[in-house]
Amino acid sequence: MDSLCVLDEGSSHQRETFATETESVFKVREFSAAAHQAIEWLANMLSRDEVEGVRLQRPVDLMARARSLMTKADLGGFDARRFADILELYLETGIKVNSRGYMGRQFSSVMPVTAVFEMVSAMAPQPASYYEAGQLANIADRLIEEVFGRFIGWPQGSFEMVTTSGASLANMTAALVARNRRISGSWNGGLAVGCASRPAIAIGEDAHFSVSRIAGIIGIGQDQVIRLPLNKQRQICPERARAIIDGAMVQGLNVFCLIASAGTTAIGANDPLPELAALAKRHGAWLHVDAAHNGAFLVSDQLRPRLAGLELADSFCLDAHKTLFVPALCTLLFYREKGLAETAFPQKDSYVFDPFEDEMAAVQSGVKNFECTKRPSILNLWLAWSLYGRRAFADKLEQLVKITRSAYDYFIDQPDFIVPYQPESNILCFVHQPPGLSGNSLSSLQLELRNRVRAAGRYLLSKVDLNGQTMLRIVLMNDRVGLSDIAGMAAEIRRHAGDILENESTKGGQDLPVGLEPEE
Amino acid sequence: MDSLCVLDEGSSHQRETFATETESVFKVREFSAAAHQAIEWLANMLSRDEVEGVRLQRPVDLMARARSLMTKADLGGFDARRFADILELYLETGIKVNSRGYMGRQFSSVMPVTAVFEMVSAMAPQPASYYEAGQLANIADRLIEEVFGRFIGWPQGSFEMVTTSGASLANMTAALVARNRRISGSWNGGLAVGCASRPAIAIGEDAHFSVSRIAGIIGIGQDQVIRLPLNKQRQICPERARAIIDGAMVQGLNVFCLIASAGTTAIGANDPLPELAALAKRHGAWLHVDAAHNGAFLVSDQLRPRLAGLELADSFCLDAHKTLFVPALCTLLFYREKGLAETAFPQKDSYVFDPFEDEMAAVQSGVKNFECTKRPSILNLWLAWSLYGRRAFADKLEQLVKITRSAYDYFIDQPDFIVPYQPESNILCFVHQPPGLSGNSLSSLQLELRNRVRAAGRYLLSKVDLNGQTMLRIVLMNDRVGLSDIAGMAAEIRRHAGDILENESTKGGQDLPVGLEPEE
Questions:
Q1: Are A191 and B221 an interchain contact pair (Cβ–Cβ within 8 Å)?
Q2: CB pairs A-B closer than 8 Å
Q3: Where is this region: Disordered (chains A, B) (predicted)?
Q4: What is the ipTM of this complex?
Q5: pLDDT band (50, 70, 90) for residue B420
């Protein structure tokens, strides 16, 4: 390399090269050692078949344990033992999502090949916002878009899909498209310039907290969130919604966006989309559907009909990291009309005259998503889809919905359980009601049952408050869960309830503690 | 399990158990096979020492190749060959971040052990917003917060740190805290209620596009973004900034937030933080520092002084996935005053009376970050820190800054290169100026050089437009890059420039194409 002649650092360069070669060998060995160790731990975890929930540790205790694993040296090194200790602590403290005792939450273990791919895409990153850096990621977006377009029934080329990091971000992005479109000049002018009427968003009573939060974030204000009432199946009731929106309009609110749910967090309910699409149209409002949980029904011939009307939405999103079993976060955000995606975050005009750069710009997502650095998480979905095909996803999802329905039927037959809502998805709420208990005592009991069942470590349930009543809630994300596990869980609930009530009658009916439930 | 007696599905349950056991064995084998394959590919990649940039493929060609790898079957299966083909295509299409030819962008390969951990955390997820699901992740937040507090010099217990997914989100989150605090009632009331003065944000001319975008998103409006002028080192000039903000106030703007940079995207400049802190204080404005790129200087005794004044900021963020070499996205968002983090997205009051739930709530991040499902990416940083210690990070970062400075000194000595800004970080801009070329022709040449160098596949550079002049830009993220690589890259630039100018003089000075550069 003759350019080196100009440098007077030749000899130090040789040392440098030698050092980096040694370092490189070291790096590869270290990587291999760590990876093989991790595979062993994970394979072992996947092979286990114990019924486990979570083992909660007091934060102060866990802090001490974690602290003891941190090297005291200013410059440490790879230490296989320390690495194993950290892996062990991690796996020990996590929810046992691979166990049949896990019934608590909307996340799950993933299709194993996608976890492997996470390692690959961390080591050889393809940030996915721009084609230059994320060639395959941007192509995968287009291929998955095509696949889902067929399920939705939208003509190829007429719609568009953007992947983003989570439904919170997807819902906010869609709301921005709606705001920028319906509140003219809001992107540049802001909302502080006197609007004739105050902009407002209408959402269902059971909408996820991240949806109601959008109004606070994008400058609409939480007070301008109109809560639409639900029917007995906890779906938005279109007739009452119409009256409420009409009333809001009269009071000077401009309801520019209606956000419906396909799969509420609480019970997995699907709002009546055809009616809500008509309602939105009537008011010139944008219809967005938060289908984070149930949107995956699209891939199943059996379940797809439950999403009837989704094709009428202006936009909707689904979380592939929930019900398509790929690593978080992988959210697909769909717009019915192509060209709207880039109006969420309008940029100054970009000019491209080079045909090659043009082609690249046409497939890349940069100006359409919030992220600048974006993980190529769509590739996990594309990879699994390419290997396993549609039915692998559909089969698992159908099984989860089926076993949830079986759990419903099971509880219906139990005289000491109430199951108020027939499940539309893989989420089921129920109340354990021992004879003679009602009202607040019944609510407190459910909470205490959630706590005790969790503390016992075999099952993990969640809880939800609906109509002033605390209920237990299961989300079945693990298709190895069978009816025997449901029955086992019910038996455990009864046992704890017996203990609690016996203890209470001894103590003279002390109040049970009130707890905080993380919302999902 | 006697509860099973009540079920009439006993026999089908037995079949079910058998099926899931078989499936489980299959799953483990598949996982192992895929993981071992991936390790081999990655170890091979890490061992290579070729000088490579990126091999760009036309989207239409890549689409065809990717499509051919998708199973045609409705139900496929794990196919080691197909998996290998996909891995190969992925690695082939990515930027060769592990090569000495990669000088283009702000992302890099990661510390190998963190890539391994990505596989673990995908397979056994600990969503990090809530303690129940992410015990270790939430503890790691506290431990890393403690470590960085010492570097910043903030007293333990007085400040607070939240991890989030990317600096775009961190910057927006901090801006919301500022807005909610200074524009009273904006979270609930929105911005459409007549403010006495229009809220505005002041940012530097070189602020990242995601920063200027915040005003559009949170309802302030892009027109209310005040651009502060820069000095010759492309840092915000405090004196001129003061005059501009004073002028804006007179015109009815309420500048409630000032966003400075520590490491601009363009050239890595650090704004003068002590002066800007004083300026913000004078106007009662919030000072946020986007230290996405240079914030990592905190870990180095040598580089930390370059961040003087950062401790005066109300908030700042840094991207551990940039200059702390962990997988994207891992952003640390710091607030000088504890208790403010939860005012970004104010929630309805939560009540917790159970002491154990209280302890858990105290360490968890749920109400403080935008995400609901949040990857436990802080664990990558905590893991690497626990194994390797501070100096592993500091050494690498110092080496990158040192070699960038050497590259500057090298170019200074080349008569046909202009290097307008002495680097403060690992980013360097320069212009190749063959004799007789200036103005638009010089800009066009730089762009064409970027394109040709990229197309040749050995080096990857980026480009940037500053003061109407297109410049070439390198970001050194790979510490194996040495001066010989810089010299090699310069030689390649000269060769392409020779070709271009020869070709031009033959053709009679046709206009060179104008291209789109992805912003980082």
A1: yes
A2: 590
A3: 501-520
A4: 0.94
A5: very high
List Cβ neighbours of A430 (8 Å cut-off, separation of 6 or more): A411, A417, A418, A419, A420, A471, A472, A473, A474
The SS3 call for residue B161 is: strand
Q: Give the per-residue pLDDT at A154.
A: 98
Q: What are phi and psi of A208, to 5 degrees?
A: -60, 150
- Between the CA of residue B354 and those of A508, A511, A513, what are the distances in Å? 20, 12, 6
Interface test with A, best of B16, B21, B65, B116 (most A CBs within 10 A): B116
- DSSP percent split of chain B into helix, strand, coil, nearest 5: 50, 15, 40
Which residues, 6+ apart, have CB-to-CB distance to A202 below 8 Å?
A225, A226, A227, A228, A241, A244, A245, A248, A255, A257, A258, A259, A285
Asked if residue A375 has pLDDT above 50, the reply is yes
Nearest to A117 by CA among A371, A365, A378: A378
Residue A162, both tokens: 């953007």
Length of chain B: 520
- Stretch A180-187: mean pLDDT: 92
Residue from B12, B39, B49, B69 whose CB has the most chain A CBs within 10 Å, to mutate: B39
Give the 3-state secondary structure of residue A99.
coil
Ordered structural domains, chain A, with CATH: 125-388 (3.40.640.10), 391-507 (3.90.1150.10)
Position B494 pLDDT exceeds 80: yes
Instruction: Determine whether the interchain pair A132/B395 forms a contact, defined as Cβ–Cβ distance below 8 Å.
Output: no
Q: Which amino acid is at A222?
A: Q
The backbone torsions φ and ψ at residue A220, rounded to the nearest 5 degrees and listed phi first, read: -80, -40
Q: Which residue of A has its CA nearest to B328?
A: A375
The span from the CA of A279 to the CA of A259, in Å, is: 12
Query: Which of B171, B386, B414 best probes binding to A when mutated, by most A CB atoms within 10 angstroms?
Result: B386
Q: Which residue has the tokens 């995968």?
A: A140
At what angle are helices A273-282 and A238-250 packed, to 10 degrees?
20
Both structure tokens of A53: 């929930």
What digits encode the pLDDT tens for the residues A298-354? 999 999 999 999 999 999 999 999 999 999 999 999 999 999 999 999 976 555 567
Please, what is the average pLDDT of chain A? Answer: 92
Contact state of A391 with B114 under an 8 Å Cβ cutoff: no
* Cβ-contact A34, B119 below 8 angstroms: no
Out of B7, B120, B168, name the one closest to residue A487 (CB).
B7
* Rg, chain A, Cα only: 26
Predicted local confidence at residue B356, as pLDDT: 80
Q: How many CA atoms lie within 13 A of B162 on its CB side?
A: 34
Phi, psi of B202 (to 5 degrees): -110, 130
The answer to whether the Cβ–Cβ distance between B373 and A490 falls below 8 Å is no
Other Cβ atoms closer than 10 A to A114 = 28
Q: What SS3 state is found at A198? A: strand
Q: Which residue of B has its CA nearest to A391?
A: B75
Q: How many CA atoms lie within 13 A of A55 on its CB side?
A: 9
- Residue A61, class by beta-carbon neighbours within 10 Å (0-12 exposed, 13-18 middle, 19+ buried)? exposed
Nearest to B112 among A30, A73, A352 (CB): A30
Q: How close is the nearest chain A Cα to the Cα of B282, in Å?
A: 24
Residue A121's nearest CA partner among A381, A363, A392 is A381
Collect all residues of chain A within an 8 Å Cβ-Cβ radius of residue B138.
59
Neighbours of B223 (CB within 10 A): 17
Q: What are phi and psi of A400, to 5 degrees?
A: -65, -40
Does position B14 have pLDDT exceeding 80, yes or no? Answer: no
Instruction: Measure in Å the smallest separation between the Cα of A309 and chain B Cα atoms.
Output: 25
Q: With contact defined as beta carbons under 8 Å apart, do A474 and A419 qualify?
A: no
Query: Mean of the pLDDT values across residues B168-174?
Result: 98
Length of chain A: 520
